[in-house]
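Hi Y.,

Following your request, here is the sequence exactly as I used it, all 114 residues.
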Amino acid sequence: MASITKASLNLKAIPKDKIYKGKKGDYLPITIVLNDEIDPYGNNGPVYVEQTKEEREAKVPKVYLGNVKVVWTNGTNVDAAPFEKNDGSGQAPPFAPSPPTPPQVPLVEDDLPF
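Below is the corresponding structure, written out as tokens. Let me know if you'd prefer a different format.
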């Protein structure tokens, strides 16, 4: 685990037409953004309703639901999930591998008196 993030959502802002039925319940596709900088209120980023490609191209305004805040981290971050293209081919597009993790320098403790 790399971090624990909490969120507060405005349930009244959820557009009912974006909720879809799944096998185990009703779902709302959302997007969570984690910015590099913290905003003046201590939030790491927004949560908004996921947009379709057509909505993004038409510059439809995003429906913001709330904010997220990282409350704990171990100092590392998780890798991005591989993107799978849903074009029916079953083939995922190539993606760039994650950069290598820098080697850990062992801590050396000497017993010198100064």
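Confidence is low (pLDDT under 50) at residues 89-99.

Thanks again,
Q.
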